[in-house]
Amino acid sequence: MIRPVPELSWPPVTGELAIYDARDGQYHVLNPSAAAIWSAIAAQTPVAQIAADLAARHGIAVDAMQADVDAFLANALQLGLLVDA
Which structural domain range is residue 76 located in? Predict the structure, then answer.
């Protein structure tokens, strides 16, 4: 299961989601689509379900949304924001 690393926090900010990384003091500001994926991951929603939910919400094909979700997850994993445990 993919989940955020414990050193991160994401306090509510109006209109956007900013992730604070206590390891290096950096903030990562997410756009609305990335914020939706992050919130779903933090809620332990299965990755396939995230893509299906977002595709339905935005009226696009699940395959296209899955590619976007996968790209976000790969980037977040590479940055060390998520861990695949």
Answer: 2-84
